[in-house]
Amino acid sequence: METRVVNQWTIIEDDNLSRWVEGFLIDRKVQNLSRGTLEFYRWKLKDFITFCDARTIINISQITPSLLREFLLDLENKGHNPGGIHAGYRTVKVFLRWWENETEPKDWTNPIRKVKSPRVPEELLEPVDIKVVYEMMAAYSGEIVHRFRSMPSTQSGLMASSKWGEATLVK
């Protein structure tokens, strides 16, 4: 890749943000990611491109840590919750790391490395009374198969987990 200096920016030829986002989405499609994941990336990266376009940022080499922080603040100002802001951060992070790996640009430091991940407060759910769990199990007449990432504690032979969605019911 050739480089040239324009005003205060060093421009890496062929680092057009929109073109590379399309290349990223093609790469993810080739990796056989789900349609939902591809749409998520497309949607979040479209927000980022729109933000950059409004600031006349058209090339990846123009992206700075300050610009990325402004993008996260812009998401907050538009009403995104902490999870939505973090999703925007993660998407841009994955994209910029992919681009860096794909192009191996010389004398370029990935700006995402200087931006800390936004903090997402952990929302604790109210615990479910064990009687309610027994009632739910009694209402289902099939076999319960549990898939857990880590072994939970047991009570009277019942496996309990705070993540009920990790259990699969099989007839």
Could you explain how this protein is built, in words?
With 171 residues, the chain is of the alpha+beta class. It contains five helices and six strands. It folds into two domains: 3-114, DNA polymerase, domain 1 (Orthogonal Bundle); 130-170, no CATH class. Strands 1-2 form a two-stranded antiparallel ribbon. Strand 1 and strand 2 (9-12) form a beta hairpin. Helix 1 packs antiparallel against helix 2 (35-54), helix 2 packs across helix 4 (82-103) and helix 3 (65-77) packs antiparallel against helix 4. The model is unreliable at 145-166 (pLDDT under 50).
CATH class of the largest domain: Mainly Alpha
Structural class: alpha+beta
State the total count of DSSP E strands.
Answer: 6
Number of helices: 5
Main beta-sheet annotation: 2 strands, antiparallel
How many domain modules?
Answer: 2
C-alpha geometry: elongated
Average pLDDT number: 82
Name the CATH homologous superfamily of the largest domain: Tyrosine recombinase, N-terminal domain
Quote the CATH topology of the largest domain: DNA polymerase, domain 1
Gyration radius (Cα, Å) is 23 Å
Beta fraction of the residues? 5-15%
Give the termini distance in whole angstroms.
Answer: 59 Å
Structure summary:
The chain is α+β, with helices and mostly antiparallel strands. The chain has helices at residues 17-30, 35-54, 65-77, 82-103, 130-139, and strands spanning 3-6, 9-12, 143-146, 154-155, 158-159, 167-170. The protein is elongated and about 60 Å long.
